[in-house]
Amino acid sequence: MIKKEEVKHIASLAHLGLTQKELDSMQKNFSSILDYIETLKEADISGVEKAFSERELKNVVREDIQKETPEDKRKKLIDMFPETKNNYLKTKKVL
Amino acid sequence: MDLLNLTIKKIHQGLVNKKFSCLELTKAYLDKIEKEDKNINSFLSVYRDRAIAKSKKVDEKISKGEKISLLEGVPISIKDIILVEGMKCTGGSKILENYIAPYNATCINKLEKEGVIILGKNNLDEFAMGSSTENSGFGPTKNPIDLSRVPGGSSGGSTAAVVANFSVFSLGSDTGGSIRQPASFCGIVGLKPTYGRVSRYGLMAYSSSLDQIGPITKTVEDSRIVFNVIKGKDILDSTSVDKKDSDYSCSSKIKDLVIGVPKEYFIEGVDPGVVNLVKKAIKKYEDMGAKIKEISLPHTKYAIPAYYIISASEASANLARYDGARYGFSKGDNLKDLYLKSRGEGFGKEVRRRIMLGTYALSSGYYDAYYLRAQKVRMLIEKDFKKAFEKVDVIMSPTCPTPAFKLGEKTQDSVQMYLSDIFTVSVNLAGLCGISVPCGSIEVDSIKLPVGLQLIGKPFEENRIMDIAEIMEK
Prior knowledge:
The complex is a heterodimer.
Chain A: H1 4-13, H2 20-37, H3 71-79, E1 84-85, E2 88-89
Antiparallel strand pairs in A: 1-2
Chain B: H1 8-16, H2 22-40, E1 43-46, H3 48-63, E2 75-79, H4 106-114, E3 117-122, H5 156-163, E4 170-173, H6 180-186, E5 189-192, E6 213-217, H7 220-230, E7 258-262, H8 272-287, E8 291-295, H9 303-318, H10 335-346, H11 349-362, H12 368-388, E9 394-398, H13 414-419, H14 425-429, E10 433-444, E11 447-457, H15 462-473
Parallel strand pairs in B: 2-3, 2-4, 7-8, 7-9
Antiparallel strand pairs in B: 1-3, 4-6, 5-6, 5-10, 9-11, 10-11
Helix pairs in contact in B: 2-3, 7-15, 9-11, 9-12
């Protein structure tokens, strides 16, 4: 079974605040999922060179041009911010 | 006239010939939702006034003798993970409980241009993560055929709404089976187009290399109409592709058709009733002259674990945007606290679990063992199908190993829940198209539970698998 310390570490990497009870149940549940996923180790991947599909996917680029957002669209986006100041997104102090 | 069980073409004829007005039609659906959805919970929001206003405009057009398009005035619903400007879009998550979409998804723009009437938004598993719609932050949806059972998921609200006649069709999204599996559980038609066929712009991202939007309809004919409107290259989604339908006329006659049946899809653990109905359906094609060929997809058993690693890894990155700062549920005093509390309390259990799994699989020291290995296995699965399609035109299988299961039956056992998608995930991993069509039902406790036949096609052969699927309806 995965160690509780490890579960805590992953939760912190993922920025998920979990209660002690949630950590306990996550440890149990997570372990059974990991056990199941272990079956992948049986697959013989020795002949596979590329890890990504050869389907017709390629990088798509465009000119880096600034476009004006219509005022009503802008307002709709800003209305969804949890906190604003002078029509800007307000966040908690970083430093 | 029963206004609630009509196909798109029948509605169009009815409107044009003035057998009923668009207002009558729209009201009939809205009233039905109001009366009956309390027990089913297939809608998270309904926009009555907006729908009625739109329907009046369609009636005006008709009364002036103006031409209307085939989809004009058709009342529909949309999975609540696709943005419709001005409507709430929750993704089935408490973290977005009050989020109002600031713009339209491309597929919505296309449908609205045709004049559809969007009645409201359908329930789903939170951020499309689930196979039963029990992971919704707003309560589960029940299967209208048997209220003690799940409608499937994650597009369970959409399939329940369509089979309950709350809307003519719905759009869903399919990452590992989320359109086809609930379509199978509700006895309707669900199409997962080829990756890149339909623009994902305006679809909340879960697993970007697997997600695809598709129609959930009562008939294959309706599926074709909707698909051909929403497909196509979109400048706003760089993974969408400009591709004409492949020319399949050479073997569109059933006599020339070769159907592949994968032996790995008829294994122990699949409900014998399901096997029986699917075999019968395949026999029907054989009787009409199609050739049946047993094929092997040897890496099938690795599909689910590979899928969970890849989709969870992508989800852990995609869902980083829900940080409490930019939109949605926000709680906390300082920056770290804001992240931990907003995400810890805003996300539901399954979403947290998958973010954890993805973070683990991508974390230092585990990347090669999990993520890279899963990607390589994905290549093997893609190769399996490529090889099979050298010999066959279409692959047929059950959509799901069982009919709809009971609410609560699999909620305690994640792996059992995941296995519900065993026949559908490979199609996403390999970038193919697939459709589920009803092929009969199994009687359990004197209720007939529907079973779906899955048809898997080569990339960009949606119209071909729909042609073949349509034969099943006759």
